[in-house]
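Table 4 source record.
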Amino acid sequence: MPKNTAHEALERLMTGNRRFVAGRQRSGTASPERRIELVADQAPFAAILGCSDSRVPAEIVFDQGLGDLFVIRVAGNIAAPSQIGSVEFAAEQFGTRLVVVLGHSGCGAVRATLAELHRPSESQSPGLRAVVDRIRPAVEGFRDTELWHDAEALEQEAIRANVRRTIQDLRGGSESLQRLIAEDGLLVAGAVYSLETGSVDVFEVMPELS
């Protein structure tokens, strides 16, 4: 597989996002012909680990069609074992060499975690608490900073910190992904989608682009 495949995949995503922001989305990406073409096999060029938020559908945000993306969605774009396994599946089974952890502005799961840190609650369901507990390590370090008293700035930084934490969880929780990063050109990128503008900001890529 060419060494620059993952870099090209990232540029393909960002080109699609620019089309989306401009309102110039492609047509025919979910045609009957394309659906039939994919019956036998698939080769998604990128895997997206994103939030379940209804306002952030990865295929639309990046203007991609059927068969283009392997999408894993979970509240707070966290990386529990099942999400890590899903990313491994895309990388190992389909040769996908780009993984994007996609957070977004106004993330309800991050807000719930910050609210829990400010005022602990006993009323959370076990399921919601499992999500909050995954996000907590990424944001609790802000307690001792000036950001803790600036709700807007705190949320923005917490969303990015949560993306970084998910990247760490992906790498630390999978020997397979570690090997593919070291030996086979797998890139893991962190990005945040703006609900306000529609644009995606890629702020971290591992390994770093040269």
